[in-house]
Every structure is written in C-alpha cells, then in structure tokens.
Specification:
With 83 residues, this protein is of the alpha+beta class. It is built from 1 helix and 4 strands, in the order E-E-H-E-E. Strands 2-1-4-3 form a 4-stranded mixed β-sheet, covered by helices on one side.
Length: 83
C-alpha cells in the first residue's frame, strides 16, 4: 500500500474532504498536494497558505512537516485539520 485515506477538515473554508495521500512523501509535500487539491475542489475558494499546518483531529497534536507520512503516525482513517 502506497497511499492512505484520510479525512481533512479545512478550517478556512469550513469544508471536509476525504483524500488519499502518499505514504512515502514528506508531510510538507503532502500539505502542498492537499492545498492544491482543496483549491481545485473548492473552485478556487480556498487560497493556498505557505504556512499551513496539519493537526491530528483527534488529539490536536501538530503533524511534523519534516517526517515522512509513514513515520508520522498517520494511518488509514486519520482525521486531520488543515490550518
């Protein structure tokens, strides 16, 4: 398996999206991918933020942007918050 399915709540536009994210990428790269996808899915309503951070939606801990996804603790079904 090279991707996991996560649910991402985007605070800026009050929307939630289910997305497959690659497990062999750095979280910082995944944040860029997620933001581009959200921008497309929202019809351009979401504006990309270079300082965006992912948080675990269950415990509120920040997901370290320097980790590879598979070593970040994220698993299938994870709930995340994009701020």
């Amino acid at each position: 398996m090279d991707k996991i399915l996560v649910s991402i709540y985007v605070l800026a536009i009050d929307e939630e999206y289910d997305m497959y994210i690659p497990i062999n990428e750095k979280v910082s790269n995944v944040i860029e991918i997620v933001q581009n996808t959200v921008k497309d899915l929202s019809g351009g309503y979401y504006q990309i933020n270079n300082k965006a951070i992912l948080y675990n939606g269950i415990d509120g801990n920040m997901v370290n942007a320097n980790n590879i996804v598979k070593f970040s603790g994220l698993t299938n079904g994870a709930r995340l918050l994009l701020i």
